[in-house]
Amino acid sequence: MIYLDCAATTFQKPPAVMEAIRRASEMCASPGRGGYGLSLAADELLFKTRGLAKEMFSLSDEKYCIFTKSATEALNIAIKGFTQPEDEVVISCLEHNAVVRPLASGGRRIKIANFPPECPEDAVIALERSITRRTRLCVCTAVSNVFGTMLPIREIGEICRRRGIPFVVDAAQAAGILELSVERIGADALCIPGHKGLYGPAGTGLLLLSGERIPRTLIEGGTGSHSASERQPQHLPDAFEAGTQNIWGIAGLCAGIEFVKSHPKGEILSAEQALCRRILDNLPAGYTAPGRGRDENQTGVLALLPVFAGCEEVAEFLSDAGICVRAGLCCAPLAHRAAHTFETGVLRISPGIFNTAADADALLRALSAARDALGG
Asked: Can you list the residues of the chain whose pLDDT is less than 50?
């Protein structure tokens, strides 16, 4: 099997991640709920993981690292915690449903900053023009999950700071791939999944806060602290971590972060970009690459559009050939409207650090075979 759907989740995990999960299942109990060894071991693991996240994402303090079950949960906490129903929120035209749906469900007024996906430099002007005196929040993805477009989030963050607007960044496709600093980006909240570019297990995520603005809590409950009070503790990270932590998953996430940190800066991004470039340079006839901009603005996510058959039909052909890719709207209909692929969707190719040039060549052969078999 050749797995090329790392934008959905990195299926291939480092052996150290699986080993960390196994060890945690044998050595850790609920953190913060006891003074015995198993509970203290869990506490130490949480502390270590927060420290790694602080270092990787330049947090001012470990307490601003909040564990979540996904980037989606982190986005819900940030979006709903920084706004009220009917508030005006500005977003980019490349946002995932993890951003759009929390906004729509509360009746918030969504203003979409439109620009061509292949021209991310236009995002700065589009977002600034969309902000008004009524805007209460700006949410922007760092990288499009459909097209791999890298947005200039640092410049967008500067605009938000000047306008006094909280800035939330969806880093689902960027964390572990790009160098991200909460301080340099100017993000009030950075929302991260554990199971994508950090190579951790599913069911893990991070909400990273700058500390300048703290959103309201979304979930309240037991934290192991201030148990006599019926009110949620307000100190961090306890305020946002009600309920028992996914300690096994966090153990895997910790190992995943260590794995990413063991690579030289930029190596993972360069490896993924090189595979996408190899595919594009040898792309057989019958396919186009909508939304594709300059290579320096693209991560290792490549959207293809077959002109001879539907995307899902081609993806099924590839699956039968042992190649895993994503087809359809990829949970980001706004991005497809911006690229004029809403009616068709795309065939999304997203390699990871474990993929090779041989994988790319096998995909190219399969794409040619799909065209010959389905194009008649």
From this structure: none
Q: Yes or no: say if 254 and 24 are a contact pair by the CB < 8 Å rule.
A: no
Residue 183 in tokens: 């301080």
pTM flag (> 0.90): yes
What pLDDT, in 10s, does the model give residues 301-311? Answer: 999 999 999 99
Q: What is the percentage of the chain residues whose pLDDT exceeds 90?
A: 91
Distance CA 375, CA 240 (A): 53
CA–CA separation, 159 vs 3, rounded Å? Answer: 39
pLDDT, residue 348, reads: 98
CA–CA separation, 39 vs 29, rounded Å?
5
Q: Are 256 and 198 in contact (CB under 8 A)?
A: yes
CA distance 314 to 373: 10
∠ CA 226-247-232, nearest 5°, is: 25
The CA distances from residue 87 to 13, 24, 127, in Å, are: 41, 43, 17
Structure tokens at 151: 């947005």
Which domains, from first to last, does the chain contain?
Answer: 2-10+265-374 (3.90.1150.10), 15-261 (3.40.640.10)
